[in-house]
Amino acid sequence: MSNRPKSDLNKAEHGTVAAFLSNLLGSLDGAGLSEKMLRELIKDRERLDRGTIAFVDAVVQFTRIINCDVNPKEHRGMAVDQHQKQGLLQWNSAKISLYLSEHQKGYKRMKVVDLYEEVKNKGILNGCVLDFLLEYDFLAPEAWKKGGYIFFWATIYKKSLSETPTIHNKFVRGVYWNSVHNRWGEVRYCFDTTMDEGCRTAILEAV
After folding, report:
1. From CA 69, how far away is CA 88, in angstroms rounded?
2. Model confidence over 14-36: pLDDT tens digits?
3. Residue 152 and residue 172: Cα distance in Å, rounded?
4. Measured between alpha carbons, how far is 105 from 36 in angstroms, rounded to an integer?
């Protein structure tokens, strides 16, 4: 989890910020700033000045727009091996389903490498969405707290950039609800292990 102050303000504060941004976004056309221009700002976040970045981040939180074309955040002990760019995604948990293979149900265990082959063309989401949910964890659906581990297969990692990827050093990241610490956490599964019915795949439903 991020050490930054909680973005989920209390209801009164959040309502004030939401109202401000709603009015601001509602008058974008009048100000000469179209939604398309706003999306371009989100894409170019890395090149903006600090003040504009703060504004863009506030807009991202309010509009829930995720830039899935950038590389996921760097994490210690991992490097991106494969990353499917997915454009700008507006987070809507109602459009996300949790997929479970027939080979995982009951007491079955499925090889991670085989599960990847099964889900890779099913609308899987990438690591940018996972990072977004860890940053703005209050947006994660309440039902997911009972969903076990939830994986985002459109980004695959390996232990270091210099390594040749194999099933022994490739892995996928996921999120889970840590009931002991009452917060969302991250989990990683290597491709040479197996997954049971406690491991679900986040799938974006076709519109």
Report:
1. 7
2. 444 445 445 555 544 444 445 55
3. 7
4. 44
Name the strand (E) or helix (H) holding 190.
strand 183-190
- Tell me the domain boundaries of the chain: 11-63, 79-204
| pTM of this prediction exceeds 0.85 | no
Q: Is the CA virtual torsion 48, 27, 207, 146 positive or negative?
A: positive
The model's pLDDT over 49-62, given as tens digits with 9 standing for 90+, comes to: 777 666 666 666 66
Cβ atoms 126, 156 nearer than 8 A: no
* Alpha carbon distance 103, 197 (integer Å): 9
- Environment class of residue 206 by beta-carbon count within 10 Å: exposed (0-12), middle (13-18) or buried (19+)? exposed
How far apart CA 159 and CA 171 sit, in angstroms, is 8
**Residue 154 has which token pair?**
């459109």
Integer CA distances (angstroms), 184 to 94, 138, 145, 173, 178, in order: 19, 9, 9, 13, 6
> Are 159 and 23 a contacting pair, CB within 8 Å?
no
